[in-house]
């Protein structure tokens, strides 16, 4: 242990609930292992330590790190949703000294009363800045603080340790608000101290060099006939709708346009005139796909955008294709030949991709054994970029790989396909290949933003990918090797260059606020603790009020939902009554009506295990093939599980409405 690492561990070793805040690559996991080992060596009582992570790939990584220093003396168990489904969690966890697991697994076990917090003597939260709002970390800590306040004498609560590179500043506009945000993090984690490196800063700088940062603004295509033609098609489709009070925004590539399409679709769905409602549903479905194609064209190749539209049209023609779709598809088929010409013409290549290729090849020319992480916004874009690299003779030599979350799904051809997700084993194998040089470049979404530790990674590219100030610190920190570099390649027109500047300002604001908190806790610790307690009390009042409103809302929903039924959003055929629904595990809304299978088609899907249930099929409307949801297997029974956005709700008086999410449904669903 280095001097700065002992400085970080000091308060936790004294038994205090502590947040350890230090840069990425400074060895926070090593500090956590030291704290864990000292904690376990206390022979006065049985000690059990839980190390919580928020992403599946981190389970295996942290398991290896802990095993290196603590095995075989201590028994260590790695556990995530995929593996936890097959074991009795309540009986298994107490048999181990150290358990590395995803937070949701522990929260589920606590919620289902399979285990209690006093089973453990220490909880360590990796990337603890997530402990807020509806995150599983915060759900666990809410239980903890509730039990602490109730002061049950029979319960001995575990010590809390949080690890993070950055607590962020939230929505703070000044230092006072930034300090309040940091104290709020302490309140959520019941922390009596934030440990940061102050006295050993020179040593930290020696071992932890901050990667060089560069922002590369790139102008878009000077000519873009593909986008021009897509805009013309969209304008033609808008013209067929002729709804005066809902005029579309002029810039069709902006978020405001997508919102306009969503609003129009919802208004059209509740119309009684079946023909008009169907026309609006079809038109808005097509407009959404063209909106997506414009986004793909802006970030990837025109070829990728064209393939996306091609898949959509092919998918339509294979399922539920009618005259309305046929008229709309003509727009695409008539323009397809010219669109193909534009896609094949090198003159219209994407300048952002050209810049990215140049910088990647330059990086490998300087250091042939480099490892490069490329972050981008969406899972669909990871596929487009991977395909581009595999088809490029220079880039394919780097054997590019792709890393996405275990729950990833792609929207293609008019339906959700989940065959692009990655299992935990696939994620681990990919990271192993990256470490050993089998894949020299990995394209990733935010799943690799935090915690992933590849010592040889020396280049981080963010492809028009900008989050908040925490994300900036985290992505930059993936570059662990000496002389690392972090580059943002961003379109001049998109606003991400300005956003990056604001994040740099917020990062400096956070550093000042953290120093103020450090002085506050050393010089006026009683005041520090008073502030933390005040924020905990405020948070409790907010939760109690939210719970009371939720209960009131639930009672109101019971009355409002009586006699309500669901109709297919596309063809308006009857699907089921709201009374036919039951709820599994709070989130899954299943139909228990015995004649419901007569109204659906179930297409098999490769089994996909999630926690203690499995998805093994897709559910479609028998009449029009609209995607209604999935088939889930829970406790060896199969249930059609529906997504409410695929339906129109009809009240007994004939009035209609739509909902995008189940939590907004105007009726209550009983537990199964």
TrEMBL record:
Pull one GO CC term from this UniProt entry.
cytoplasm
InterPro entries with a match to the protein in the record = Helicase/UvrB_N, Helicase_ATP-bd, Helicase_C-like, P-loop_NTPase, RIG-I-like_C, RLR_C_sf, RLR_CTR, RLR_Helicase
The alphabetized UniProt keywords are: Antiviral defense, ATP-binding, Coiled coil, Cytoplasm, Helicase, Hydrolase, Immunity, Innate immunity, Metal-binding, Nucleotide-binding, RNA-binding, Zinc
| An example Gene Ontology biological process | defense response to virus
Residue ranges annotated as coiled coil are 525-555
- Residue stretches making up the RLR CTR domain: 554-672
Look up keyword Heme and say if it applies: no
* Broad class of the protein's primary localization: cytoplasm
Q: What GO terms are given for molecular function?
A: ATP binding; DNA binding; hydrolase activity; metal ion binding; RNA binding; RNA helicase activity
Question: Reaction(s) catalyzed by this protein?
Answer: ATP + H2O = ADP + phosphate + H(+)
Domain annotation Helicase C-terminal: ranges: 352-526
Name the PROSITE patterns for this protein: HELICASE_ATP_BIND_1, HELICASE_CTER, RLR_CTR
Main enzyme class? hydrolase
What top-level branch of life does the organism fall under?
Answer: Eukaryota
Q: Give the matching CDD domains.
A: MDA5_ID, RIG-I_C
Which interval of the chain is the signal sequence? none
EC numbers, comma separated: 3.6.4.13
Q: Where is the Helicase ATP-binding domain?
A: 9-185
Q: Where in the cell is it found?
A: Cytoplasm
Q: State the family named in the UniProt similarity comment for this chain.
A: Belongs to the helicase family. RLR subfamily.
Q: What's the protein name? A: RNA helicase
Species name: Branchiostoma floridae (Florida lancelet)
């Amino acid at each position: 242990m280095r001097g700065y690492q002992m400085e970080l561990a000091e308060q936790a070793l004294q038994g205090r609930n502590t947040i350890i805040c230090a840069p990425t690559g400074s060895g926070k996991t090593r500090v956590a292992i030291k704290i864990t080992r000292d904690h376990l060596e206390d022979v006065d009582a049985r000690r059990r330590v839980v190390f919580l992570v928020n992403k599946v790939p981190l389970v295996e990584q942290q398991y290896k790190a802990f095993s290196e220093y603590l095995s075989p003396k201590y028994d260590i168990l790695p556990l995530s949703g995929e593996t936890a489904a097959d074991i009795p969690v309540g009986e298994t966890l107490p048999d181990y000294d150290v358990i590395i697991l995803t937070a949701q697994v522990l929260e589920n076990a606590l919620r289902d009363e399979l285990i209690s917090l006093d089973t453990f003597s220490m909880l360590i939260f990796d990337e603890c800045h997530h402990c807020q709002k509806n995150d599983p970390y915060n759900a666990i800590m809410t239980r903890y603080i509730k039990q602490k306040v109730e002061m049950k004498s029979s319960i001995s609560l575990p010590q809390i340790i949080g690890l993070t590179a950055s607590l962020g500043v939230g929505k703070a506009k000044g230092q006072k608000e930034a300090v309040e945000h940091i104290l709020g993090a302490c309140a959520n984690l019941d922390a009596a101290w934030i440990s940061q490196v102050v006295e050993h800063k020179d040593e930290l700088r020696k071992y932890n060099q901050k990667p060089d940062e560069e922002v590369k603004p790139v102008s878009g295509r000077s000519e873009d006939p593909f986008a021009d033609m897509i805009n013309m098609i969209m304008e033609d489709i808008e013209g067929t709708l002729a709804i005066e009070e809902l005029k579309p925004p002029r810039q069709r590539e902006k978020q405001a346009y997508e919102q306009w399409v969503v609003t129009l679709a919802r208004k059209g769905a509740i119309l009684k005139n079946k023909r008009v409602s169907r026309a609006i549903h079809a038109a808005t479905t097509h407009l959404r796909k063209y909106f997506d194609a414009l986004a793909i064209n802006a970030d990837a190749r025109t070829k990728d955008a064209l393939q996306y539209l091609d898949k959509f049209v092919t998918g339509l023609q294979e399922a539920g294709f009618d005259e309305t779709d046929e008229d709309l598809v003509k727009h695409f088929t008539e323009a397809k030949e010219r669109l193909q010409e534009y896609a094949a013409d090198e003159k219209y290549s994407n300048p952002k991709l050209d810049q990215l290729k140049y910088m990647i090849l330059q990086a490998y020319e300087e250091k042939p054994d480099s490892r490069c992480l490329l972050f981008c916004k969406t899972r669909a874009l990871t596929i487009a970029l991977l395909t581009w690299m595999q088809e490029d003779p220079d880039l394919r030599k780097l054997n590019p790989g792709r890393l996405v979350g275990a729950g990833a799904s792609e929207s293609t051809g008019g339906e959700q396909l989940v065959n692009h997700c990655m299992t935990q084993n696939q994620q681990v194998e990919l990271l192993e290949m990256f470490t050993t040089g089998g894949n020299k470049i990995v394209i990733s979404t935010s799943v690799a933003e935090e915690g992933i530790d590849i010592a040889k990674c020396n280049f981080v590219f963010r492809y028009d990918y900008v989050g908040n100030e925490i994300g900036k610190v985290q992505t930059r920190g993936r570059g662990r090797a000496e002389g690392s570099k972090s580059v943002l390649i961003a379109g001049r027109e998109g606003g991400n260059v300005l956003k990056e500047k604001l994040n740099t300002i917020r990062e400096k604001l956070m550093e000042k606020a953290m120093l103020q908190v450090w002085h506050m806790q050393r010089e006026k610790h009683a005041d520090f603790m008073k502030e933390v307690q005040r924020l905990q009390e405020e948070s409790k009042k907010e939760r109690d009020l939210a719970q009371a409103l939720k209960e009131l809302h639930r009672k109101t929903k019971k009355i409002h939902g009586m006699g309500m039924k669901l109709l297919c959003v596309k063809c308006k055929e009857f699907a089921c009554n709201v009374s036919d629904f039951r709820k599994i595990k709070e989130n899954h809304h299943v139909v228990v009506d015995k004649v419901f299978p007569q109204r659906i088609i179930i297409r098999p899907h490769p089994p996909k295990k999630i926690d203690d249930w499995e998805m093994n099929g897709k559910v479609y409307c028998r009449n029009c093939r609209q995607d209604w949801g999935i088939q889930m297997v829970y406790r060896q029974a199969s249930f059609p599980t529906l997504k409410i956005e695929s339906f129109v709700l009809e009240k007994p008086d004939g009035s209609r409405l739509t909902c995008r999410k189940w939590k907004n449904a105007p009726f209550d669903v009983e537990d199964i």
